Amino acid sequence: MMTHRTCDGIQRRDFLKIGALGGGMTLANYLRLAEAGEIADSAKARCGIFINLSGGPSHLDTFDMKPDAPAEYRGVFQPIKTTVPGVQFCEHLPKLAACADKFAILRGVSHTLAAHQLGTVYVNTGSRPLASLEYPGFGAVVAKETEAANPVDLPSFVAIPNSNQRPGFLGVKYAPLNTGATPTAGAPFSVRGISLSGGLTVDQVRQRERLLHDLDAKFQGFEKQHQLLEGLDRFSEQAHAIITSPRSREAFDISKESPAFAKPFGTDAFGVSCLLACRLVESGVRFVTLSLGGWDTHQDNFTRLRTTLLPRLDNGLAALFSGLAQKGLLDSTAVLVTGEFGRTPKINTRSAEGGRDHYPRCMFMLTAGGSVRGGQVVGESDDKATMPKSKAFSPDDVAATFYNNLGIDHTKEYHTSTGRPITIVRDGTVIRELYG
After folding, report:
1. According to the model, what pLDDT value does residue 193 have?
2. In whole angstroms, how far apart are CA 318 and each of 63, 321, 383?
């Protein structure tokens, strides 16, 4: 099992037990606990993809380079031109440089939480963490807000292979359907509870459904008296619809993609996961999360970025943006890419090569799709990328914008189980410049 462990001991797993939804939850249990609302019909983006760069990538070595800064800040990488005049990326991101017109870069995003767990919670929810309350992540909110328009035979929120986004005070019924593993290029992708395995046929599933129906009739009187059993029939029917639906099985089957379309995604796990995300939103899944870990580069920063991290990000993300555009999905899919923080502008000397440490005061995020205008940079850092030059954007602002792009009012109030009113994003203002 492949893992990424950050410096504070948090383990980032790339492969989990297939089909796990936290505590081994099955698909049927997940669907019985799933419930949601409705998105505004006028929203341009109908689906969302969130990509979590676990560990915190360096902004100076990626999308906010400072070639004129002193050597101890600028590092060893060289900038290259992009398709956007005047905008430069790191030399190890050539594919993203070639499609820079398809996404926008936010520079000067800033916060103060330098611990991995706290920073991760912050950027996955858009609200600064509180000890007394767990805010829901983006996917849980989208799942809640879109039920009326969601296909009955598809899950609304899928995590490949798992997600840092939790349902928070909304409850476990809004948790994602974790695939539990990453797909393999050119092969059908099996998700337990969706793909039939072990010789089980659809007819056998239907026979078991008839048996369950008979049992439900026996216990109908008790069910009406017990709150925990309310709605079980409805969710069982939805689970049955997903298992037996050709559309659901095909949504996860990346081998159905043409070789010409799949080729740019490559065979790397992250790239193929991007291919699956593209296929899922095309099929009608409302929200998908992906993760690319390993960015906690306190040591050997430049070697790790050059040999592994940047090529993987460059290939997978460029293929995702281009693939969504090719399928006509970029206008209807809001995309957000972020780590939990940036890394120190000044290179440390704890190893021969040097590294960069945690730095939430200045970082980048990428966003695309829907109403976002690609091919622009919004925000700016100072000459050494130590702080925003003038206006700073908070994760709250980014979350408000992401929700706005999806037609969700970030000021809408939910209520906790105790009746406490909570806004979706506690603080935050929509970044209108992204829509320019």
Report:
1. 57
2. 14, 5, 28
Query: For 335-377, what is each residue's pLDDT tens digit?
Result: 999 999 999 999 999 888 999 999 999 999 999 999 999 999 9
Q: CATH 3.40.50.300: does it fit domain 3-194+252-435?
A: no
Calculated CA dihedral for residues 408, 409, 411, 417, nearest 10 degrees: -50
DSSP, residue by residue, 280-316: HHHHT--EEEEE------SSSHHHHIIIIIHHHHHHH
Say whether 191 sits in a helix, a strand or coil. coil
Question: How far, in Å, CA of 131 to CA of 133, rounded?
Answer: 6
Per the structure block, which two tokens stand in for 397? Answer: 């602002």
Helix axes 269-283, 310-326, angle to 10 degrees: 20
Please state, in angstroms and rounded to a whole number, the distance separating the CA atoms of residues 61 and 38.
40
Q: Which of 113, 97, 95, 111 is CA-nearest to residue 63?
A: 97
Q: Which amino acid is at 166?
A: R
Query: pTM of the entire structure?
Result: 0.85
User: In this structure, which long-range contacts are made by residues 26-30, counting pairs with CB atoms below 8 Å and at least 24 apart in sequence?
Assistant: 26/193, 27/177, 27/192, 27/193, 27/194, 27/239, 27/242, 27/243, 28/193, 28/235, 28/236, 28/239, 30/155, 30/175, 30/177
Residues recorded for the chain: 436
- Name the more confident of 353 and 204: 353
Whether the pLDDT of residue 98 is over 70: the answer is yes
CB 67 within 8 A of CB 306: no
Q: Which helix (H) or strand (E) holds 317?
A: helix 310-326
Q: Where are the domains of the chain?
A: 3-194+252-435, 196-246
| Kind plus residue range of the DSSP H or E element containing 368 | strand 363-368
The percentage of residues in the chain with a pLDDT greater than 90, rounded to a whole number, is: 69
Backbone angles phi, psi at 89, to 5 degrees: -120, 175
Q: Is the pLDDT of residue 211 over 60?
A: no
